[in-house]
Specification:
mainly alpha, 17 helices, two-stranded antiparallel sheet, globular, Growth Hormone, Chain: A, about 375 residues
Length: about 375
């Protein structure tokens, strides 16, 4: 038991450092993009189109790659597969750490589009599966909330650092911290596989074995799949469990909305209210502090009293309200007010995760991405 607790502590540190390395560049990337593509202006259609195209390509890539990564992690271990996305995530940061001119930006754009197909979402999903390997079913929702709180804490620290760092220093620090996260993970994190622990349901992709589904709405036996899941396998899984398929649909549309907001919101605020790096950082600090407090202290108490399904409903409803407020913002203070809703919006991702992870890590990744 002590070994498991120690492993989870190292997992939390890994998630924190990795998240900080990736989050620290977010407040400044809009200004970097505008400077590279449309200098001396606050409006740039090309930047929005390129950002949307990149998000779409990354989304398609993750749908194809993350189920494979999840399946391989069942076979070779979470730590072994964590190495790949954590390494790839360093490369685009290093490009902009060298220079932020137009040519370097296009190099960053191309490299990040390719590497994010593997790294985007993989670290989070592998971390959730590592946690699921070592936490009992009844405690997973709270544990996922705590892990999300650690990520939110990394977001706060990264945004606070970005608020006071120059743009050039931001990307250099991001490269260093991401590299440190990789080294720390390789040295300290214990390997974990589903077949090494008692609390994890055995991987459904093992040949010749039947898996008993814990979903009360599902049939008693789950189908046995070959080693690399096909689209037909995914459809078969979704049909086998109504609860799983409903959670998958909720996660898909929530991720779709989040991707659309990420692609356009900062460019919208820059064009509408002339926001810059520091104001983006202020918004993100509010978001991160509210999310951290909620996930570390509020959500673990609520999930035991009202259940993760109701938390999911509340989180999704408030997310809709947040998007509406952004779309009709009539003054610069409205986005700040809307951002405070993060204290409730963050209920959604951890609430839907247990329904997806406990079946099998491999297929859970398909939806969580």
């Amino acid at each position: 038991m002590e070994k498991k607790v120690r492993g989870l502590r190292h997992l939390m540190v890994t998630v924190f450092l990795s998240g900080m390395g990736n989050f620290i560049v977010i407040p400044g990337i809009t200004d970097v993009t505008m400077f590279a593509l449309c200098p001396a202006t606050d409006e740039c259609s090309l930047a929005i189109y390129l950002s949307a195209f990149q998000q779409a390509m990354i989304g398609v890539g993750t749908v194809l790659m993350i189920p494979l990564i999840g399946n391989l992690s069942d076979e070779y271990g979470r730590k072994a597969l964590l190495t790949l996305p954590m390494t790839l995530s360093i490369i685009p940061l290093a490009v902009l750490a060298c220079s932020r001119t137009t040519n370097y930006y296009y190099a960053y754009y191309a490299v990040r589009t390719l590497t994010a197909m593997v790294s985007e979402g993989s670290i989070n999903c592998l971390s959730l599966s590592y946690l699921a390997d070592n936490i009992s079913d009844s405690e997973r929702a709270s544990a996922f909330g705590i892990l999300s709180g650690v990520s939110s804490g990394a977001f706060v620290c990264a945004t606070l650092a970005a608020r006071f760092l120059s743009t050039a220093s931001t990307f250099q620090v991001a490269t260093f911290v991401s590299t440190l996260a990789l080294v720390y993970m390789r040295i300290f994190l214990e390997e974990s596989r589903p077949d090494q622990v008692d609390s994890m349901i055995q991987p459904m992709l093992k040949e010749g074995e039947d898996i008993i589904q814990k979903d009360g709405n599902a049939p008693g036996k789950m189908p046995v799949f070959k080693k690399i899941p096909s689209l037909g396998d995914v459809i078969c899984l979704l049909k086998s469990s109504p609860s799983f398929s409903q959670a998958a649909v909720a996660a898909f549309f929530a991720s779709l909305a989040e991707g659309g907001m990420i692609s356009s919101s900062m460019y919208y605020l820059k064009a509408r209210f002339h926001f810059n790096k520091n104001q983006f950082a202020d918004l993100m600090l509010i978001d991160g502090i509210a999310s951290t407090i909620s996930q570390l202290f509020l959500m673990p108490r609520l999930v035991s009293s009202i259940g993760d399904r109701r938390l999911l409903s509340v989180g999704l409803l408030v997310t809709c309200v947040n998007a509406i407020l952004y779309s009709v913002a009539w003054s610069a203070w409205v986005p700040y007010a809307a951002t405070t809703l993060s204290i409730v919006m963050v209920f959604a991702p951890p609430s839907v995760s247990p329904s997806l992870v406990y079946v099998t890590a491999s297929f859970g990744f398909f939806v969580l991405a």
